[in-house]
From TrEMBL:
Protein name: ATP-binding protein
UniProt keyword annotations, A-Z: ATP-binding, Kinase, Nucleotide-binding, Serine/threonine-protein kinase, Transferase
Pfam families hit by this protein: HATPase_c_2
UniProt lineage: Bacteria, Bacillati, Actinomycetota, Actinomycetes, Kitasatosporales
GO MF term list: ATP binding
Domain of life where this protein originates: Bacteria
Entry-linked SUPFAM superfamilies: ATPase domain of HSP90 chaperone/DNA topoisomerase II/histidine kinase (SSF55874)
InterPro entries linked: Anti-sigma-factor_SerPK (IPR050267), HATPase_C_sf (IPR036890), HATPase_dom (IPR003594)
Ranges where the Histidine kinase/HSP90-like ATPase domain occurs: 46-133
């Protein structure tokens, strides 16, 4: 996916929104969307072993994976610039709030990872699902 670079005349910060069917293959597509968006809009430390980009990709992967595992049906991913960071938003069809569970071989690590990497996490429950917003600062 090719995203246009931001211009000084844009009325709002750059963002991208993509809808997915909710199949496991969409996790890789969501990461590719994030890589493209970050490449156009986020600073990158050239010699750092672990970067802001890595954190954003991990949050995208975890939120989309949780949606695929726990919400039947379509989901959407939105990435947007904030002053000093990025917001990752995932909407799905499960109206239950994410929760931590003891980690085991099959999972239980994703939600704590998102909470530790994000500077702010908000969950909005709707009648037809939920929206999770995770903000990350550069």
């Amino acid at each position: 996916m090719e995203l246009p670079p931001a211009t000084p005349h844009d009325a709002r910060p750059p963002q991208v929104s993509v809808d997915f069917e909710g199949a496991p293959g969409c996790i890789a597509e969501a990461r590719e969307t994030a890589v493209t968006f970050l490449g156009h809009h986020a600073p990158r430390a050239p010699h750092a072993r672990h970067t802001f980009h890595d954190d954003v990709l991990l949050v995208v992967s975890e939120l989309v994976t949780n949606a695929v595992r726990h919400a039947p049906g379509p989901l959407s991913l939105e990435l947007g610039l904030l002053p000093g960071g990025i917001v990752v938003t995932v909407r799905d069809t499960n109206a239950s709030a994410p929760r931590s569970r003891p980690p085991d071989r099959t999972g239980g690590r994703g939600w704590p990872i998102v909470q530790s990497l994000a500077t702010r996490v908000r969950v909005v429950l709707r009648g037809d699902g939920k929206t999770v917003h995770a903000e990350l600062a550069w």
